[in-house]
Amino acid sequence: MIRALFRTLAQAFDPALLRVMARSFLLTLISFVALGIAVSWGLDRLHPTGNAWIDPLITVAGGLGVVALAWYFFLVVVAAVAGLLLEPVARTVERRWYPSLPPPRDAGVVEETAIALRFLVLLVLVNVAVLPLWLLPPVGAVAYPLANGFLLGRQYFDQVAMRRLPPDQARLLRLRYRGRIFFAGLIIAFISLLPVVNLFAPVLATAFMLHLFGGFVPADGAGMPPPGAARANP
Description:
By secondary structure, the chain is mainly α. The chain contains nine helices and no strands. It has one domain. It is found in: Membrane.
């Protein structure tokens, strides 16, 4: 895992990766603004009471709520953007560090879309479920990173692994290294919440997981199915 982190940082200023980071920055920023507008619209449905004391409080609380909720659900935005940038990040990382790997398998649009949507729905539901736990700050502060670390580690690994392995083989590999993948998910959750850094988190997290996956399989891709091999059902 330490090697995966160092390799990710070592390539952070690669011109090819910087171009992908620029796209990540724009996509993430636009998504964050859209999320803030959506949350603001929802809070605006709170009609004024006509009370000179309460209405200003609602306005202030609404503004703070927009920022807080947009930040809280920012992990969902990061995960969605990461799915869109997986292939260009993977090509750039593998060209430098794993040149002997065979071409990735053709997962198919249906399979990739199903995996991404299933994960995003699960991530939203889990974060909505965890939200009330923040009424007890110590509980929320523990539940939030643990839940998201588990989900992000699993999803980033699945996206990376299924580029080269059928779903059943990717699942077995994930179960074998679930401890390391969970801790990698915690790291991804942490960098996804750091101001400014989180705008580049989709690229950094994907590169990090690619290196982690690279440590689980032979450097020459031995044992991987050839491109175009029959796909297993998820």
